[in-house]
Design brief:
mainly beta; six-stranded mixed beta sheet; 9% helix; rod-shaped; binds zinc ion
């Protein structure tokens, strides 16, 4: 995972590191690195040192060949390391570039190590008690603990220091880990206390000191305490060099006990014979203590250099002069002597209450010779030309040493000559190196200021030879260079964090460059909690190294600019100890944090329907709206309804995105539902970041949803959307078919069935009597979703009949379930694919052959392994038995009740009861008498009352039983009514609920909306109504509403239609105008439907039926019948006698033939009307009659035939004007005597239009051509309609076709 990497690319090329490790001082180590020429041309290389700051230490050397390097060959970069100062660490940065412009960077590291030589003892004591104890010998070991060999040298006169002598010679080579045993001899005899301090010089390391104290006493004398002799050095405080050079240094940080001047004595050329030619020199010793001091010089045993006085008391803060005389004994000789003096003083220590004697040693080298002036001395020596001292700070002394060796057998005289104003001190300044011997020279520097100090000293050897030694050292302060992000005059550096998400961790990189030769200890002083630093803010940077350092940012507050100034306290380290004053660097650090703001486009996504187990992808764009670069991780929560959604999968590709501010990226969301139902996926995110330990952490989920995805898991489903009654003896509207066959349950099962869980559904054929011929219904099946659905049906045999043998081929037979039940139900087709624009028609054909209930099972198979068991029940009654069947089956199939009427919610305290109607039909071909037995007996003002006590239902007729419902309380009501027809007594359950006044009343029977494409499914080559259902707005009682519809004839036949009037006594009257007519082929007829509400307010659904007769077919039949009649008559008159006998000719012996045509039977179309009328007294606003009449009928805009109608013009109404006039005349007379039309007639009279004469005039005049159905709608339609029935005394129940339209 790539996290937070918007830092500028610091390293264009990789940095190679060359680490030499620890290397002994003054040795050379080499390492090679190879660079390959990857280009296609020869290249030259060169090396450059970058970051040249300090030129004192040139310990590394990188070299590369100057020759051109061929392609694919490698060039060697040779790195050489030669440390000159022990105990240092070195870093340098180099760059190698080639002529092609490639650069290679090298970081070279190395450390130097020096020897580690110590003495086993620091103090030796000798105790001699005359004639009792003679302890004059002590052993001390020189131990080398390091892996490098070195040389050592005791700094003392050849004859030993005072009375102490070293047995093993005063110099030598000590090998790695070697131990050299040395014996110290004490040779004094006089009584007294003897002290000495021996210095062991070791090349490349500090000197070691050995203190000695010896006593010689007589027996019986009290023992001298030797413990109170203290040799004045404080190792903890000072380098051991200080002790050696204490007397030579000019600017000590402390005042020594005493000091001597001169530091060395050069007596020049002396004379053995002429004493006057020997110079005398003086030494001045100053006592810096508050006590009296005592100095004792150790006399030269050879008596060459004589000091006078040999001992003296020096009072406090005073000086004394001593004279040194040179008395050579031999001609042509060189003399050197290390004059040692022991200055001591007594000091009363308050702590221990003892007197301590403190010793300070002076070592004054004295040289002189007795050379003649013209003598040339052969001289051969070896010493380095450059001496580099370890780094230091101003006013701190630094030390080093080197070796001057004499290559000849003869002794060599040397003397250093310092330049004026030197910063260096050399000890010893002069002396004599024995033949083949050497002298370790110690060098110290006292820098007064910062800077590099280069001095060239003269070294005079044997008077005439001169050499130069360059002394190099530098003094530095704690100097750190920082690369800054910005500029602020008040601080040395400015760093700025990248904008960071609050709660995350971020960092800024700083590069600390230690430009000194010393390690620097850096401490970060910080007072704010939001800032952190690597290594807890305490680091040591090795010399010259560039350190990559991180500031850490822990913002916790939102939208805050963080700013602070921190202090970097730097101090240089020498030998791991802080030296000199710390230096402070002020650094300003700023940062900013805010909350993450990740936005998504689009924010709301609806994937709509997704078939279960199908993947649907959508791409969204996520956008970093905040100013921080951050990494987000998207995650989602899924919720839903219906089926279990835990199996639904959402894939986010990719869920982890690192975005810079104002950047965006695309993320693909893929959804795979595992079950059906609506789902909501909320997408949120968390922020990922790397913490200071390089671990990836996550900020706790942000509860805010940034994106919502909706989808619906679906199973491809079908649904019955419309039913059609094609052939049925009972006039059933599609709505009735829907209710009778139980489509709701079927549809519910189609939606509810799930993979591998078959459901069982009951479908009912309309109950009818045993009868010949089929009953055909159609289910129009459409898609529920916009997904095509393949389905198939097969019969599952559930009866007990045996299988029968069926011959398939000449000799192949097969057992089949071809039992007698098979023919009772026929479903076609048996399979198909339903898509959105292509609904399927499922034809259901029923045979009522067997009495009683017969059930067949079909298995309907749907995609996703879903199946339904359809149990199709066909109930055939006995013909002779009177029976009633409800048009709506009880939702719960109970045997207790014949029908259940749900009255719904009705406002309480209505003045008028609401009437609901329960519909029955008589499936038999005999009259049935219905009688209310029980139910209304409870009280006069019962809430639910049946309004019909007795009715006779014709064969295949329908019966409306009204129930009045007037609730008084807001509770549920329920009443059971018993009734009888024929011989059966059955119960009817009526339910209802009281509601608030003006509560929304549910009109329970309104069918669902059916899409146009579904409605059009069965409109080819048939006659159909443009409307199958009309829900009429709530009307007051005694009012009317009008509507239009069309009968459409899509066949090539001429069709006659007659509307069967629909009236329910006292409740409603539905009149269709024109009530009869003829429709030409491929045309349609407009019908105005007028609904009159009568005095009883009621809410119910009823059916209006139209009888259709195919006149073309009937003419054909009649012509055929006429032909048959004529030919029969003709045949009856003719006879033929042949040899076979006498016979009459057949009617079809010669053309024209008489066909066997059945008499065409009328068939029916019907529509349902949902009516709701309210009582006049319950506050329902009464509409003025004028307003009612002014209302234009709403056109059914879904019937596209509207335009066709006007284009084709009027058709078919064959009534003559005379007929109309006659009818209207009669009607008006009739109407004036009718209570129902009285108001309307009065209204007309008042408005003066149209009186009878007006009408007649209008019809007969020029307006005649405009007298279409539209003009005659309204009152005229109603009047005409009514008149037709009255004048001609029509009875719609009798299907006698009086109208011979042709
Ligand atoms: Zn059977």
């Amino acid at each position: 995972m790539e996290l937070v990497s918007d830092e500028t690319d610091e390293s264009v090329c990789e940095i190679q590191e060359v680490d030499f490790g620890s290397v002994p001082v003054d040795t050379v180590v080499e390492k090679s690195v190879w660079i390959e020429n990857t280009s296609n041309e020869p290249l030259s290389y060169r090396v450059a040192l970058i970051y040249v700051i300090n030129t004192v230490d040139q310990v590394f050397n990188l070299s590369v060949t100057s020759a051109r390097v061929k392609p694919r060959e490698s060039v060697e970069v040779l790195a050489r390391f030669k440390p000159k100062v022990p105990g240092q660490s070195y870093t340098d940065y180099y760059m190698v570039d080639d002529t092609a412009g490639n650069t290679y960077r090298f970081t070279v590291f190395g450390k130097s190590i020096g020897p580690d030589v110590t003495l086993s003892e620091k103090k030796l004591t000798f105790k001699i008690c005359k004639n009792v104890l003679e302890q004059r010998k002590a052993v001390v070991n020189i131990i080398n603990r390091s892996a490098m060999e070195t040389t050592y040298q005791w700094l003392l006169p050849l004859s030993g220091q005072g009375y102490f002598q070293i047995s093993t010679g005063n110099c030598g080579l000590i090998r790695a880990y070697e131990t050299i045993k040395t014996t110290v001899l004490f040779k004094a005899t006089a009584l007294g206390v003897y002290t000495a301090e021996l210095a062991l010089l070791v090349l490349h390391q500090p000197p070691r000191f050995l203190n000695m104290i010896a006593t010689i006493i007589l027996p019986g004398n009290p023992m001298f305490t030797m413990a109170n002799h203290v040799f004045g050095k404080n190792i903890k405080r000072k380098n051991q060099f200080v002790h050696l050079m204490e007397n030579s240094l000019n600017r000590l940080t402390y005042i020594p006990s005493a000091s001597v001047f001169n530091k060395y004595l050069d007596f020049g050329v002396g004379s053995v014979s002429d004493v006057s030619r020997n110079i005398s020199q003086t030494l001045c010793v100053t006592n810096h203590e508050e006590e009296n001091g005592y100095i004792q010089w150790i006399p030269d045993p050879d008596n060459i250099f004589l000091i006078d006085p040999i001992e003296s008391i020096i009072p406090a803060k005073e000086s004394r002069l001593f004279t040194v005389r040179f008395r050579p004994k031999l001609e042509v000789e060189v003399y050197g002597y290390l004059m040692c003096g022991d200055f001591s003083y007594e000091r009363y220590e308050k702590d221990s209450e003892e007197v301590q004697i403190k010793h300070t040693w002076f070592r004054i080298p004295c040289i002189g010779n007795t050379w003649s002036h013209c003598t040339e001395w052969a001289t051969e020596w070896e010493c380095p030309s450059e001496v580099i001292l370890p780094p230091t700070v101003p006013n701190r002394t630094t030390y080093g040493n080197f070796m001057l060796s004499n290559k000849l057998e003869t002794a060599m005289h040397f003397k250093f000559e310092a330049p004026i104003g030197t910063n260096y001190v050399v000890v010893p300044m002069c002396g004599v190196v024995q033949g083949r011997g050497w002298q370790i020279i110690s060098v110290a520097m006292e820098p007064k200021t910062l800077g590099n100090f280069y001095e060239t000293w003269d070294l005079k050897l044997n008077k005439h030879h001169k050499a130069y030694i360059q002394l190099t050292g530098n003094a530095e302060s704690s100097e750190l260079e920082l690369m800054s992000h910005g500029y602020n005059p008040d601080t040395q550096a400015v760093y700025e964090f990248p904008p960071t998400i609050t709660g995350c961790t971020n960092y800024a990189t700083a590069y600390f460059h230690n430009v000194t030769r010393m390690s620097i200890h850096v401490r970060i002083l910080n007072s704010v909690p939001w800032l952190g630093a690597d290594d807890c803010g305490s680091i040591v940077i090795p010399p010259k190294q560039i350190l990559c350092y991180h500031w850490w940012f822990f913002p916790k507050e939102v939208n805050k600019v963080y700013q602070t100034t921190i202090t970097c306290s730097c101090v240089v380290l020498i030998n791991g100890r802080p030296i000199a004053e710390p230096k402070e660097i002020f650094i300003q650090i700023t940062g900013f944090s805010e909350l993450p703001d990740l936005r998504v486009l689009p924010k709301l996504n609806n994937f709509h329907d997704i078939v279960v187990n199908e993947r649907v992808s959508r791409t969204i764009t996520i956008y970093n709206y905040c100013s921080c670069f951050f990494t987000s991780k998207l995650y989602y929560t899924l919720n839903g309804m219906d089926d279990d959604w835990s199996g639904d999968r959402m894939e986010i590709d990719s869920e982890i995105n690192s975005l810079k501010p104002s950047n965006h990226c695309e993320v693909k969301l893929t959804v795979t539902p595992d079950g059906a139902g609506p789902r909501q996926v909320d997408i949120s995110y968390t922020v990922l970041y790397r913490n200071e330990f390089d671990q990836i952490e996550e900020i706790q989920p942000i509860t805010k949803t940034i994106c919502i995805v909706w989808y619906d898991g679906i199973y491809p489903s079908i649904k019955v959307k419309r039913t059609i009654s094609v052939k049925c003896p009972v006039i059933l509207s599609n709505h009735c078919v829907w209710n009778i066959t139980n489509v709701d349950e079927f549809n519910k099962a189609l939606m509810d069935c799930r993979p591998n869980v078959p459901l069982a559904v009951n479908l009912h054929a309309p109950d009818l009597c045993v009868r010949p011929g089929e009953v055909e219904l159609i289910f129009v099946i459409g898609c529920v979703y916009d997904v095509p659905v393949a389905w198939s049906l097969r019969r599952e045999k559930i009866c007990d009949c045996a299988m029968i043998e069926v011959q398939k081929g000449i000799s192949t037979y097969e057992w089949r379930h071809n039992c007698v039940h098979r023919s009772l139900v026929e479903l076609t087709p048996s399979n198909g694919i339903v898509s959105t624009g292509n609904p399927a028609l499922l034809h259901l054909k029923f045979n009522y052959t067997y009495e009683g209930l017969n059930t067949l099972c079909y298995v309907l198979t749907l995609p996703n392994q879903r199946s339904l068991y359809l149990y199709i029940h066909v109930f055939a009654n006995v013909i002779s038995k009177g029976i009633l069947t409800p048009l709506r089956r009880p939702a719960v199939d109970t045997n207790d009740y014949l029908a259940v009427l749900e009255c719904g919610k009705v406002p309480i305290n209505n003045l008028d009861p609401v009437i609901r109607i329960i519909w029955f039909y008589n499936p038999t071909e005999v009259f049935t008498t219905w009688r209310l037995l029980r139910g209304n007996t409870t009280s006069q003002d019962s809430v639910i009352k049946c309004l019909l006590y007795f009715a006779e239902v014709p064969p295949l007729g329908k019966l409306a039983i009204p129930f009045a419902f007037m609730p008084t309380e807001m509770v549920d009501y329920e009443a059971t009514f018993s009734c009888s027809f024929g011989y059966d007594t059955v119960k009817i359950l009526v339910k209802g609920q009281g509601g608030l006044p003006n509560c929304v009343e549910t009109r329970l029977d309104i069918p669902l909306y059916v899409e146009k494409v579904i409605r059009a499914a069965y409109r080819k080559e048939v006659i159909y109504l443009s409307l199958e259902h009309r829900t009429i707005p709530i009307m007051p009682t005694h009012s009317l509403t009008r509507d239009t519809l069309a009968i459409c004839n899509d066949t090539d036949h001429i069709i006659r239609f007659i509307w069967l009037p629909e009236r329910i006594a006292n409740i409603v009257n539905v009149v269709m105008t024109p009530c009869w007519g003829v429709i030409q082929p491929k045309s349609c007829e407009w019908i105005t439907m007028t609904v009159y509400t009568l005095q009883e307010p009621a809410t119910f659904t009823t059916t209006v039926a139209c009888e259709l007769l195919d006149l073309t077919e009937r003419r054909r039949y009649q012509q055929n019948e006429m032909l048959r009649k004529n030919k029969t008559e003709k045949c009856n008159q003719e006879f033929i006698i042949t040899e076979e006998g006498y016979f009459r000719p057949g009617i079809n012996d010669e053309p024209p033939y008489v066909l066997d045509i059945e008499k065409p039977q009328p068939f029916y179309l019907s529509l349902t009307i949902s009516i709701s009328s309210k009582g006049q007294r319950d506050g329902y606003p009464r509409m003025l009659l004028k307003q009612q009449w002014e209302q234009t009928p709403p056109y059914d805009l879904l019937t596209s035939e509207l335009h066709d109608y006007y284009q084709r013009g009027s058709s078919g109404n064959s009534m003559t004007t005379l007929d109309i006039i006659r009818i209207i005349d009669g009607i008006l007379w009739d109407a004036l005597h009718s209570k129902m039309f009285k108001n309307q007639i009065q209204y007309y009279a008042k408005e003066d239009i149209p009186t009878c004469s007006h009408l007649i005039t209008a019809i007969e005049s020029k307006a005649k051509s405009n007298l279409s159905r539209r003009v005659t709608s309204g009152i005229c339609d109603a009047i005409v309609n009514k008149a037709i029935y009255h004048v001609y005394n029509l009875n719609p129940k009798h299907e006698i076709s009086i109208f011979e339209a042709e």
